[in-house]
Amino acid sequence: MASGRGSNFQAILKEKQKGNLPDVEISHLIVNKRKAQAIKIAGKYNIPYNIIESKGNTRTEFEKKILDIFKEKNIEIIVLAGFMRILTSNFINIYKNRIINIHPSLLPAFPGAHAQRDAIEFGATKSGCTVHFVDEDVDSGPIIMQASVNLEKGETENSLSAKILVKEHQIFPKVLQLLCSNKIEINDQNIKISSD
Ligand code: GAR
Q: Which residue lies with its CA nearest to atom 2 of ligand 1?
């Protein structure tokens, strides 16, 4: 599921194309914005997609439309790749521990929509990205993998975002393959990754 540029979606598709995601089948894309660039990427890689806009739908209708598609297609794992709408606990519970999200900070530091800007304004010397299971709170849920970057003098929101994005494109596909090959165990908030 995506809302915008779709570079993480593309990174996953590229890794799949390279043969690095043998247990991952990328079946469908849902976007909630008609102008999302992710749609073009889906077209390029022949991935079926639906545009389901929040506008004109109640929250329940919006989520039901998505869930109906997922049910019909037997979707097992949901990847939030820059999906910028909060999902209800009803939706999250249906896919409990099967929704992953990527966030551009080292959570729990700097949750929210301006993670890179917040890190700079705070004066952090390190930031990065986090892949986590989605729970009922925003940018919360058990952390699966993180990657860090250093902030340099004069770092801007753009330069930091670009640096972090490189790391996002590395760890997100990696986590997806681990999840789809049943290598991620979750007990309460504790994550165990088996390494064989
Ligand atoms: C990424 O930086 C991702 O971490 C962030 O949105 C961007 C999407 O880029 N997600 C969040 O901030 C979620 N809280 P993309 O559309 O090019 O993948």
A: 104
- Residue 83 Cα, ligand 1 centroid: separation in angstroms? 7
* Residue 139 alpha carbon, nearest atom of ligand 1: 14
Per-residue H/E/C for 120-135: HHHCCCEEEEEEEECC
Pocket flag, ligand 1, residue 168 (CB < 6 Å): yes
CB atoms within 10 A of CB 124: 18
CB contact at 8 A, 86 and 108:
no
Q: What band does 196 get if pLDDT is binned at 50, 70 and 90? A: low
Is the CATH number 3.40.50.170 carried by domain 7-183? yes
- DSSP characters over 83-99: --SPPPHHHHHHTTT-E
Which pLDDT tens digit goes with each residue over 106-154? 999 999 999 999 999 999 999 999 999 999 999 999 999 999 999 999 9
DSSP string for residues in 22-68: TT-----EEES-TT-THHHHHHHTT--EEE--STTS-HHHHHHHHHH
